[in-house]
Structure formats: structure tokens, C-alpha cells
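Example record

The entry below shows one chain as it appears in the dataset: sequence first, then C-alpha cells.
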Amino acid sequence: ITLTAQAAYKSKHSTLDFSAEYMFSRNHTELNPWGENQLDYTFTEDGIYRMLVEAQNEVSTVNATAIVTVQSIIGDEFSFLLLTNAAPPGLIDFRLEFAGLTSVPSGVTITFTVNGETQSVDLDMYEDPDNSNQLLQLLSSTINEPGSYTIEMTMSNLVSEKTMSIDFNVQNPVANLIVSHKDYIPTGKELTISHTVESGDEVIFIVTLNDTAATELPSTSADISVHTFTEYGEFMITTTASNNINTLTQQTLICVQYPIIEDNFEILAKDINPGDLAVFMIYYNDTFDHIPTAVLMNISIGDYYTEYNVPLDLMSSSARNQFKHKISTTLDIPVLNVDVNIEMWNFVSNWSYSGEIDVSAGSLLSAVPDLVSTLDTITFDLSFAAGENLTYRISLGDGKVIITTNKTFTYTYPDSGNYTITVSAYNDEVNQTDTKFISVWNAVEASKISTSLDNELPGTGENFTVSVSYEAPLPQNVFVNITMN
């Protein structure tokens, strides 16, 4: 600043300048030696200063004062930021930052205009609690309607002016996020996830799935997202809906199952004899990684076997990439064309099988043992023969022949030996003949056994003999066991 002074004598008729020396002072501090009437001076700090100038010559001294206001120029150390974005109606917060802790310009007035309204506040900055190397000041303005806005802020003092602006959008908040999709889906099929909100401007949806890849689907403003699961299991789907105002999150569960593939299943059921254990094998031909999951079955075998909600339990078989489930039951009577029905399902697929097996009559002599004794009574059960009003002819192999319509009879062989039994069951339409070889041994009879001792009172260390006798004829393959107690 250039300070200039001029001393003069004034009368009614004229003004006379005097030749004089001048001294300038600032707040009682001399700034120059006595001399010229002009001083160039640079202030280094903001403030209000009292400047004194004195003028003297040989006969007199006069003085005068002036008040000088010194302010810093508003520079680029300031930055203007949007802090929060509230939903209308609400306060929008802004942040004014100053990079540094000193040399903040003084006398600054802040004027900002938004939504057609102008507000003025004084600059009043304080140290940033999160950054000790800068100062900050918070400002706010009320926005009543959603839309796009520009806030223009002007900082000014007596010596400078700086204008900054921010463009921002005010949006209605996101409200009532609704997410829907199927509860169950097979692997390999595209899942559609529907996500909507009741209200909200410029909403962005993000869907994250905690499958093996922790997949995050691309952000979208549309109402649907799609994903295809390659692995089975239960997965959590996290859906977020957000805009500049708020974020809503909702979690839903999806169950992914391997589907039942009809071409991979094979049912094996064999014809059996009455009284045998019927085994039905369900084969699945694929890799272990693709076995259908959570499968239940309803199983019916004619009117003889029914079971509901049986879990499919596939075990590894000897064949490569083949797995099996076994169903076992006993069918006691002969019957042709037994219906076998198997239904299987999980939540994503289903499949059914229908077939037939025969429970054949088998051998009419299958219940006759291969070896009996002369004391055993053999029961012949001919009820397994297929047909009605049958006549039975039984040749027992020992010369005896029986013809009867009874389905059961008994017989005891009187003598040991090997015999061939032939049974025929016949009527006008059926003629079934079966043959069986049987061995009959003489039974051991207790009444024919006798024992004796050659010494009934032996001493310690003395031998004695036990003699066992059997009345002829001697049965085949007899073993003698003597127990001494």
C-alpha cells in the first residue's frame, strides 16, 4: 500500500504547502526515518491498523491518522464438497475445506444460492477432527423437491472474490424392496430374480449369490436379474437396492438340485420263485457329481408291497459311473405279471417307471429237503402249481405212487436209500412235472445204543475202557461223542 501525506497552511485566501519531513508509524511502531512524504508498505497479516503520519519543519509539527483494513486474497486453498444428500424435504449438507491451518482470509462472507434462494453466512472454520492439517466449515440448505440442482457458492471480502459450484441430484429414497424367485431350481437352468421397489428415484439393483464363485451379478436398473447355477446346494441371494439417498438389502434362499434325468435311470427286476427274496435294482448311469439330490420314491409291487416317500439312496456299484438302489421284498405266492410301479421326484423334476415281473411256480418239489432220515416226516406242498382243479401224481421212488387232488400230504420213508421223486400236476390245460433226488438215512435210535465200562472204579492213573454198542443195522455216517464230567 502506498501512503502519501502533505502538510499545508490554510488561510481564508490561500493554501500554502510547506516544506517538511515526514514520519510514518503503524500502531506506534515507526516505519521509516524522517524524510519523504510517501511510503510504500506491505502488510503481512490480516487486521485493522491505525496509521499515524507526522510532519515537521523548523517551527511546527502536525500529525494525522488513517485506518487501514488488511485482508488476504481468497485463493485455491478452498474446496467445496457435497457431504450428504437427503431425501426431500430435507437438509443438504455441504463441506467447505481449507488446506492449511493459518492464513485464512479474514472478513469473508459466504453467499450460496440453491433452489432459487440465497443465504449468507460468515466464514467460521475450525480444525478438521479427521485431518489435523486442514480447517473446515459445514453448510446446509433445505431442498423441498427431488430434481437436479446446482449450488453456487461465492466467498468474498473487501479485496477478493471466489466462486465455486456443485451439481447434484436430490432423489426420493428407496422404499419397500420386494424380491421374488422360485424356491427350487435344477442345475443348468436359468433362474430369474425379480426385484422391485415401491418408490425411489434412479434405483440401482445389485444381486450377490454365495455359490462357489461368490457371484455378483452386473448392476442393473431393470426389474430382473438372471443366473444359472452349476452346482447343487442351498444358496443365499443378497439383493440391494440403492440410490444417492439410501440402500435397502434383502436376503432370500434358493435350493438348487440336480434333476432326475430319465435316460440315466434303469430298473432291473428279475422273475423269481415263490418265497424267494425279490430284489429290484434301480441303476443310475452318470458321474457321482450329477446324482439327483433329495429324491423321494413311492414303490408298489402289485398288492404285495407298498412303501411311500422312500429316500433314493444310490450306492456305488461295480460298474464305472453307475450307482444303484436296492429294493427287497418276499413274494410268497405264484402270480403272473406282477405290476411294478416306481415314482420318484424332487422339487425340480419327476419320473415314473411301470413294468411287470412273474412270480413263477418254480419246482413243485423245491420245499423238499435233499437229505432226510427214516424218522423224518416230509411235507409235500403242491400249492405253488399254476392252475385250477389240478390232479397230482406223486411217485416216491420206493415203489409207492400216490394220486390225489389234495395240495399237501406227508410221507416218511421206512428204509434208507437214494430215491427219485417225480410229481406231476395236470388238468385239461396244464401238465407240469418236476423231479427231485433225495437221500434217506437210517436215524440213530437211542433204544439201540448201549454202553459198558471194563472198570467201574478205576484208581488214579489207571486206564479204563468205555464200550459203545449199537444194534444192527448201523446208520450211515454215525459219530460217537463221549463226554466225561
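Notes for this example: The longest strand covers residues 131-143. The mean pLDDT is 84.
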